[in-house]
């Protein structure tokens, strides 16, 4: 009797799991009744995966008469799709799980929807397509975009955190960052087409080799009056090491604020630059945005919805749905019921 009960429990468990899956146009969607959302997690058959060229992810799926918005692309969803050329995302997608696109040799231009805020670890590896990241993306995980054939379409001034080895061997030409940026070790290792780097007044670089390789780096602009040192990611303590390795700095000019030249020449983190020029950055700053004190609300299509001095004020009268909230330079997702 006990064995029968165990078997029944297993069968019921299996039924519950399979019943929570919805198959639509060759794709498998996992429905979560806890979060009232769904994620695309796989394909219905091996043959479909091997031969599909275009995939359009549904914006919602129906299960037991209830509709669930598709908000997530599951872990390893597009791994080894050898004939895949195009993926169309609905605006409902706000989250990617790890290892999203790996070994998709024929994939063409990839445009991610407005509303995605983070690119997780190992998301894009070895792609030959152009990837367009929306402005809502502010964080990149470790190894998130390595060995891309084309530089991603993205303004790094929108980033607040870039993980270790995030953009290894990517053909990026210029990098601009905003105050508060955190850059992991070897984040831009072997970006050998990099010609210009602009670092703000406030920034943190963890570990060694964030900018390392052999390339054509010509100019580095650092707006911090006090030379920054590298930080140990584990302890938070300052450590010795070069911010930009000698192979990159030998033919490069470092531009620093007026009166800071000698401090940079004496700094263990910057002393490898042979040519350090003091510059008055007043009026020469790259274009910056002015943040309001209040809350800006945008929908997932990137359309401005409302503004308020408080979050409650900003959300008054708007329709139920998922929105993007901007406040004091930060971006977060908000579900309005």
Question: What labels describe this entry?
Answer:
five-stranded parallel β-sheet; 30 strands; six-stranded mixed β-sheet; mainly beta; disordered N terminus; 337 residues
Number of strands: 30
Broad shape: globular
Question: Mean of residue pLDDT?
Answer: 86
**Count the helices. How many?**
5
Q: What is the helix content?
A: 10-25%
Task: Give the structural class.
Answer: mainly beta
- Alpha-carbon distance between the termini? 47 Å
- In terms of DSSP E residues, the strand content is 25-35%
Poorly predicted runs of 5 or more residues: 1-19, 283-292
Rg to the nearest angstrom? 24 Å
> Largest beta sheet, briefly?
6 strands, mixed
What's the number of domains? 3
Question: How would you characterize this protein structure?
Answer:
The structure is a single chain. It is built from 5 helices and 30 strands. The chain is mainly beta. It folds into 3 domains: 1-126, Alpha-Beta Horseshoe (Leucine-rich repeat, LRR (right-handed beta-alpha superhelix)), CATH 3.80.10.10; 155-289, no CATH class; 295-336, no CATH class. The strands form 8 sheets. Strands 1, 2, 3, 5, 6 and 9 form a 6-stranded mixed beta sheet that branches. A 5-stranded parallel beta sheet has the order 12-15-17-19-21, with no helix packed on it. The protein is globular and about 70 Å long.
């Amino acid at each position: 009797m006990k064995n029968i009960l165990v078997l029944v429990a297993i069968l019921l468990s299996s039924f519950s799991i399979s019943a929570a899956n919805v198959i639509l146009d060759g794709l498998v969607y996992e429905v979560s009744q806890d979060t009232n959302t769904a994620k695309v997690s796989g394909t219905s058959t091996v043959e479909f995966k091997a031969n599909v060229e275009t995939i359009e992810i549904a914006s919602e799926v129906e299960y037991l008469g209830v509709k669930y918005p598709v908000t997530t692309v599951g872990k390893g969803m597009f791994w080894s799709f050898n004939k895949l050329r195009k993926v169309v995302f609905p605006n409902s997608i706000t989250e990617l799980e790890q290892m999203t696109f790996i070994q998709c040799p024929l994939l063409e231009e990839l445009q991610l929807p407005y509303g995605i805020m983070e690119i997780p670890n190992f998301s894009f590896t070895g792609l030959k397509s152009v990837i367009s990241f929306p402005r809502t993306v502010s964080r990149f995980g470790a190894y998130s975009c390595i060995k891309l054939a084309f530089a991603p379409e993205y303004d790094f001034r929108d980033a607040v955190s870039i993980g270790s080895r995030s953009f290894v061997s990517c053909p990026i030409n210029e990098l601009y960052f905003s105050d508060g940026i955190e850059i992991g070790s070897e984040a831009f290792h072997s970006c050998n087409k990099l010609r210009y780097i602009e670092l703000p007044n406030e920034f943190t670089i963890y570990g060694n080799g964030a900018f390392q390789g052999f390339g054509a780096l010509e100019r580095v602009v650092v707006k911090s009056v006090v030379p920054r040192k590298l930080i140990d990611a584990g302890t938070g303590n300052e450590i010795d090491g070069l911010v930009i390795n000698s192979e990159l700095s030998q033919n490069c000019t470092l531009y620093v604020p007026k009166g800071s030249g000698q401090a940079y020449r004496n700094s263990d983190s910057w002393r490898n630059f042979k040519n350090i020029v003091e510059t008055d950055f007043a009026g020469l700053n790259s274009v910056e945005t002015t943040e309001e004190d209040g809350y800006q609300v945008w929908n997932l299509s990137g359309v401005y919805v409302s503004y308020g001095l408080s979050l409650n004020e900003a959300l008054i009268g708007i329709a139920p749905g998922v929105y993007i909230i901007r406040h004091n330079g930060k971006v977060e997702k908000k579900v309005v019921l």
